[in-house]
Sequence to fold (345 residues):
Amino acid sequence: MVASREIHLKSRPHGVPRKDNFSLVTVEVPEPGPGEFLVRNIWMSVDPYMRGRMYDRESYVPPFQLDTPLEGGAVGEVLRSHHPDYKPGDMVLHMRGWREYALGDGSMTKLPPSGAPSDLYLGLLGMPGLTAYFGLLDVAGLQRGETVFISGGAGAVGSVACQLAKIHGCRVIASCGTDEKAHGLKAEAGADVAINYRSTDDLTATLRAAAPEGIDVYFDNVGGEHLEAALNCMKPQGRIAACGMISQYNDVGEGVGIRNLLLMVSKRLTMRGFIVSDFMHRQAEAFAPMLKWYHDGLLNSRSTVFEGIESAPDAMIGLFEGMNTGKMLVNLCSHQQHGIEVEFI
Ligand SMILES: NC(=O)c1ccc[n+]([C@@H]2O[C@H](COP(=O)([O-])OP(=O)(O)OC[C@H]3O[C@@H](n4cnc5c(N)ncnc54)[C@H](OP(=O)(O)O)[C@@H]3O)[C@@H](O)[C@H]2O)c1
Fold:
């Protein structure tokens, strides 16, 4: 038996999650049985979609249950194994995060020997990176030389999307919530124009000034006012990849509608929603070029790291306060190597 601390959902948030919606619980994890192995989690992913699972409603993933551990992406090290394919020291990617130790079975993915730090499998080389890749190149059908607007540009998905668009020879306009993030978007993610949406009271006018000829592709991470501004500035036949709408995840009541949707008709726009899991069978197609661009220095990775399992609720709340630049992570084992450009909290 090993004592393990884990984060439970204590109550369902009303609006932005609060610390008292979560509890830290210590449990005993049994020794692995036949076909099982014990994993010590090292990195935990903190993702906006988890907020959706805190509602008690049907969606593409089932809701979290009260007084049970949250689930989420994690990378850990195999400590003890009774599974022939996993040995102590192997690093695995899996969904049994939000706890210090987990029992694994054959469904966990062994990290390939790529030369990349293990935390990158939760960001650039993991789910957020694949979301940016397939959202831009497949869902939006990005073409060389086009003008792209990416909201949430300084986050995990957005910062990869900006860099991928640059690699594909596009002009990139990105939005984010602070001047510091805007500076980083231009200096590190290659954005041609970075807009701090909090410092403009007319996002449409700011976007129009940034793209006087109009926008070919909008990669939407935010929804709401960002989507309205993008619709106003889209070129005819433009395409919108609806990746996420974080501005609405904590809405209470009916929320606010998009007032200019009629532009979809007059401009003959296409808007397509997607979930990255739809593309998991094509993971290898994205992984090979992404890894090469990473090793060639064309794709860089940023993370914001909270320390210790007890900080995980703060990290989750921090997503909605814009506390992260790049991937939001929790580190459970601080001596482990991490990817470049880490800001510890
Ligand atoms: N479709 C899919 O399969 C898929 C997969 C992964 C993620 N997603 C979606 O992609 C989006 C980005 O996810 P991520 O993991 O990369 O998160 P992230 O962008 O790293 O983190 C969230 C960021 O959103 C911004 N934000 C928070 N509340 C906001 C608001 N009310 N208005 C505007 N911006 C706000 C904050 O940055 P600022 O400082 O810039 O405000 C915050 O740092 C989310 O909508 C997520 O749900 C979709």
User: Anything to note?
Assistant: Residues 147 and 211 are 8 Å apart (CA to CA). The first strand starts at residue 2 and ends at 9.
